Amino acid sequence: MPEITGIRCVLLSSPYADADEREIKACFPNGPKRTIGMVEVTLDNGVTGIGEGYLAVFAPLVFKSIVDLCTPLMLGKDGFDIPRRVKDLRSLCDYWSLQGAARHVISAFEAALQDAKGKSLGVPVYELLGGARRDSIQIYGSGGCCDAKHQFNRELDLLGAKGIGIYKIRSVKRDVWRTVWALDEAARRGIRVAVDMCQNLADPPQPVDDVVAFVEAVHAKTEQRMLFVEEAVGPDSPEAFRELRQRIDVPVCGGEIITTPKEMIERMRAGAYAFVQPDASVIGGISAVMEIFAVADELKIDVVVHAWGGAAAIMANYHAAFAGGGKLVEFPMLDFPLGREMIGGQGRIEGGRLLRPTAPGLGLTLTPEMEARYPFDESAVYSCVLNDWNPPPDAYWEQ
Fold first, then answer.
1. What keywords sit in the KW lines (predicted)?
2. Phi, psi (5° rounding) for residue 142?
3. For residue 18, which of 34, 97, 125, 200 sits 20 to 30 Å off, Cα-Cα?
4. pTM over 0.85
């Protein structure tokens, strides 16, 4: 079988969103630019594969250091024996990072090997996982990092052009009137709205009582209802998710920050979520997401993959969704030119549905010219220490 002859860490930075959007003002202290980190694996048959770890969005040099640490362990090994290579990486990293940063890096290696194997065999990655269970999947627009009506309307226009009928916005508990406005405006266009409360970044996170108060306040001011509420309480408190599910009539979901299948499966069995949101660039790779799908089938819980990284993270999650029989996937709406170029025509959306990709491997393109256009910028990092910003007052949204 093909041996691994080369490992390369690729850090690239691209313009991202715009300076006036909420996520940029809150989380990007150096402006609208984002970094992604990838592992490129080269096999002795000349084929290369690309995988991504979400860690690099936050700590790119940490990502690179762990890649460098892992590289000697991978060289000269069978590139098609992906379970064995993941086991090797875990033997190196689990003692000091069973959960957390190293799992993101293992995710990148695993997806890169899947990509290289698929390319070598001339088949899409989902074929390595048992084949696609459907030809298209309903997709929802993920954005709503907006502090102005024209920003919301721009995203709603994009959803309408693609036939997408579900829109996820970001709201915190003070955003009652803003959320009401978004629900009503979207409904006028035939679009339903879900809310991400972003508590995956909060320390300490909001209590369940605050989420209940927010949901009740919003629903008291509009006839529209939230489609689901995501990451509404602290990520380290599965019992709070379970309590919240008992106290509101809106589906509660989460899981994007969970870095092992074991932890996510324990939460699923405990009833923490109405549906779960694993991310292949976080949880240990595409095969780890497939473990979640297998248990979800048993428990009759839906899996809606999280897809908020760069192109390799997004496509890894999409291939898992097609192989696992996912019914809904995420479409990140904030503009990211590098990701758009790398995905090209393999992320086609028609009639509100993501079409099954057809290219071998993950279907990504990365050229030296693209790397030259998007050089790594050490200042382009996402900060979890949120900046204060001044959102419009309630009166702006009540008008």
1. Lyase
2. -115, 110
3. 200
4. yes
